[in-house]
Design a protein that fits this description.
mainly alpha, 7 helices
Length: about 140
């Protein structure tokens, strides 16, 4: 009987002294690959939704050739080129256009170099590296 009263006492104290239990649920939204910081990035995202690879290539290349392209736009463009273009020559074409752009920046260069191993052909890698090196001399 004493054992039963002890157990009942412990249960009652746990219930009375336990306090309130508050559960907070937070929804965490995953950030997009490219946050639309300017209209150029929004345009890059729009081009990414085109159905055909050749249309995406032409759209990306037009953007890559723009003077005054921001660092963020260059990085976003490089990411999309590697993610959304299927053909090696299309990727190389857009990357070379970006490298030839007078606004080509260190951020764009780093984005390309970080993903260079995703180019399948050695010749493509060499041409891109030569273009980057040519800008520095």
């Amino acid at each position: 009987m004493r054992k039963g009263l002890l157990v009942l006492g412990l249960i009652m104290s746990a219930l009375c002294l336990g306090g309130c239990l508050v559960i907070v649920s937070e929804e965490v939204e995953e950030p997009a690959a490219c946050e639309p910081a300017d209209e150029t990035i929004a345009e890059i995202d729009a081009v990414s939704k085109l159905a055909f690879d050749s249309d995406r290539q032409q759209g990306y290349k037009r953007i890559a050739e723009r003077v005054g392209l921001s660092d963020a736009a260059q990085v976003c463009l490089v990411k999309k080129v590697f993610d959304k273009l299927a053909f090696e020559d299309a990727k190389e074409d857009v990357l070379l256009a970006l490298i030839d752009n007078p606004s080509f920046s260190y951020a764009g260069e780093q984005a390309i170099l970080e993903r260079l191993d995703r180019l399948a052909f050695e010749n493509s890698k060499v041409r891109v590296l030569k273009a980057i090196n040519g800008r520095k001399s």
